[in-house]
Structures are given as structure tokens and as C-alpha cells.
Amino acid sequence: MTSGTQPPQADPGNPQHPEPAHAPQSNGPYGTAPQPGVPHAGSAQEPAPYDSAASGMRQGADQPAQDPAAPPGAPSMSGPAHQYAAPQPDQSAWWHPAAASDPWRDPASRAVIETRPVPLAPAPEPLPARTPRARPALGIVIAVSAVTALIAGTLGAAIGIWATRSGSGDGSFLGAEPQTERDVSSVAGVVEQIMPSVVTVLTSDGGNGSGFIVSDDGYVMTNHHVVVGGGTEPADSLQVLFSDGNVTTAEVVGSDPDSDVAVLRIEGDEHPAMVLADSDRVAVGDPVLAVGAPLGLSSTVTEGIISAIDRPVLTENNNGEVESVMAAIQTDAAINPGNSGGPLTDIAGQVIGINTAIASTAAEGEAGNIGIGFAIPINQAKRIADEIIATGSASHTVLGAELGESELGIGVTLSKIVAGSPADDAGLQDGDVLTSFNGNMVAENTELIALIRKLAPGTVVTVVYERDGEEHSAQVTLEAATD
What we know:
Thrombin, subunit H, Pdz3 Domain, single chain, disordered N terminus, alpha+beta, 7 helices
């Protein structure tokens, strides 16, 4: 690209400072192409640091003006000690009638600046004569230098060998002794404690998921879609891989597709169980760890924060049908295929959720992490797992109303109240628009369903709704679905 403004040309009359016609192009990391209106980098004269028009400067403006009356060959007026030309005589001598004949008032005479002689400082005493000293021959100097270098090199090698053999280090005298023990509260210390409790679940279709031990007698929590694999029904048993490389068979105790929770059991009664935290106490910004086997890479740990809570998330089964709805914990910790069923922990290593799903911009097929992952809150997952262990199945919490679109633009319309349901018992009616549930603003149907399923049957919640343009509130005791 060529500039629209020609670069300034070098002065041909100034041979003392020749400049090359073109400077070599810079190929450094910050080299730039010439821009319009800017002299090319290869011009003979360096551009001024500021645009002349913008700064108000003119070429030669900082040079002193030449005296037009000075004769040719007169010395220049520039320089730190300026010379001043005498004024030309005025024949009219208008300032005094006798000026023309008075030599002391002759305007043609040059001004003279008298100078007084400056006394010179006394001359310094001469230095005493130096006694000539013999200069060693060059060969001797080189020989001495070579011998010195040889001695220094030999000494350095000896010190290094001595240090290595004596066990005082690796030849370096700098640095403290390396620390082999880590603080148990550090991320590395926490990971070291929890890693034996995390397993890789090997699915029947050759894939893998993750899981974690929740009791010393061998119960393992994971996702329903992990135990299903590529099919539609859970397998009877699966293989699990421990962090130490051992593999064992795990029995599938049961699973719940509506909540995407499953329970396995491995033999033994001395398994290291993970601590389950209270997921209702987590907050946005809390640091978290995601542990599992993404893409088959067992014992992988990633770190992030909680990005959001109660995020409504729909998951689909292998047939593309909506299977579960959850009020998920959102995190930016890297979660990828294979992480499903693994623990999301707080910074102390206590489980706050089960890694379950990721958001993706891919149109089809499996996609990787983009910093938006979702986990089932552990309080909900633990309740489901306890019911599966106790009864082989899980209950699901309901409000007892059919839902529709809100005409207000916010909230959820209760289009039909089921007789004898929790909503009916609380006095809700058909057409009421529910705008808040248990302290959470509700914008659409999926959000309300997720918030309801997060809670256990028997939980009492406060709902806010609008009826005939007026706002009301009611207490609702949630129940388990009967079907």
C-alpha cells in the first residue's frame, strides 16, 4: 500500500549527512505497513514526531531570522552569542542639530562593548615526573591470562564435583530446599484427598462417564444417562476404574430419568466416601472444582467459579425427547463429554453438585467446553439417591396445575388447577398468573417446573400471583406426584 503523501526528500546540498534512499523494511513483531498520509518507513528523512500542521510548527520556524542588511559573507547572526549590526546613518540627524558633526553622536559609528581583562588563575603546579616502568611483553600477558583462566576453570569444576558428590546440591548455591508436602487446604492438597473417591464409569457401548463414592459401603452416584449409555435402558452392571488403576464391577442399584440421577454399588466396606455439602448455601462467585474423566482422561481436575444458580436446564434422551428438567448450578469450570456423573466440589472438596450437561454452539454431534456447564444440586441428587437406595425408585414434586403462557409478558399462567392438589388447597384458581415462587422471580414455564422439582415433597413455599390486576400471595405445601 502506497501513501498518498510523498515523504520529504533529503537535501541534496548537504552532503555531510547522506541518507540511504530507502531504509530496510522492519520485519519485527511491531512492524507496520505505511499508512495514508504517513511517510513510508523507507523515506530518506525521518518524519517529525508530531504532525506539523496539527502542532502549528513550520519548517525553519525555530531558526533565527537573517539580517537583511548584512553584507555578503558576513558572519551568521545565529548561535548563542549573537552579533548585532550597527544602525545605518540617518542623514537627517533629526534627534539633535549637532549630531552630524559631533563624533560622539555619529550614528554611523559601530557600538563597542568594552570588556575588562579577566585575571587568569595561577598555573597549577607541575606533576612530578613519573618513573618509566617496564611494560611486560604481550606474550607474557596472554600466557598469564591463559593460565589464570585454566586455574579458574579447574577450580570451578572441582567445586561443582565436590558439591555434587558431597550431597550439598546440584552444583548451585542458590535456592531453598524443595518442599515435597503441600498444604492440605491448597487445591493440590484437596485434590489429593478426594481423588481416590472419584471413579471412571465404563459404559456398555464403549464410552465412559464419571461417578463418585458417597458411602464407605460402596454406593456411587452418577447420571442416569451414563448408566444408559447409548441405549434406552440402564445396564445391570458396569465396570468402574479407580484413580489407582484398579478396575471392578459395579451393580446398577437404580436410576431416575426425570432427575438424571443413578446409583451404583461396588463391593467392599472401606471405600473413601466424599463429603456432601449443602448446595442451598452456595453463591455465585464461589470457587469450584470439576473432577472426572472428560474424553476418557481419568482423574482430570478443572477449576472455575459458580456462574449462576437455579439455571433452568432441559436435557434430552437418546431419542431426542426431553427427559429431565433441573434448576442447575452453572459453572465455568471446564466440563466435557465424559465428565457426566462426576462431582462438582467447593474449594474444600465437598460435593455441591453432579456434573451433567454443557451448553454448546455446535449444531450437531458432541461439542466441547465453552465455559458453560451445569450440575444437579447435590441436595436434590442426594434425596433422589436415598429414595432409590431405599425403594428402588424416586418421587417427583408437583404443584398441581397445568401451565400456560402469561399474557402479562412475565410469570406463568395457571391455566387449570387440579382438584385436590397443593395449588387447589392453597386457594389458587384457573387463570392466576404466578410471578414468584419461593422467593425466585418466575419468567417462564421451564423455570417454574425446575424450581418445583428441586424441592422435596412436603416443602412449604410462598407464591406470589396476580388475579384481576391485583397481587396476592399464598402458602403452598408441595406434594409428590401420584402417577
